[in-house]
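lol ok so funny story. i was supposed to be doing the assay writeup but got distracted and ended up predicting the structure for this chain instead. priorities right. anyway since i did it might as well share w the group, maybe its usefull for someone
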Amino acid sequence: MKTFSIEGGETSPTVHIDESKSVVEISGNSTLKETSWFYSNLLKWILAFNLGNRKTEVINIKLRRINDSSSKWILLILRKLASLIPASEFEINWYIIGNSNRVLLSGQRLRSQSGCKVNLVSE
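and the output, tada:
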């Protein structure tokens, strides 16, 4: 079984991918200035976990803070994943933690533009 984890920092999210549970979790803050390096590598890991028989079934996104660049990268990752796995076969839970309007708006944008089922969950 494959797992992959990145410990988050002040501006970078914590990421945990668990093949045995078919879950990807992204949490914390995502306000990186250089999002391309971080998210392009995350995309490679997510794609690698979806090459075999096991496929991602749930993506939990629990961000307290997010910038526009991170939001665009997450949208790109979900679109790429949806090109490999039918969108009906995986679920995205976008958690709204606290009163962050930016996180809420990013989740709403993701729901309308990704072509995937996105659950907006208040926490």
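The chain has a mean pLDDT of 91. The first strand starts at residue 3 and ends at 6.
back to the writeup now i swear
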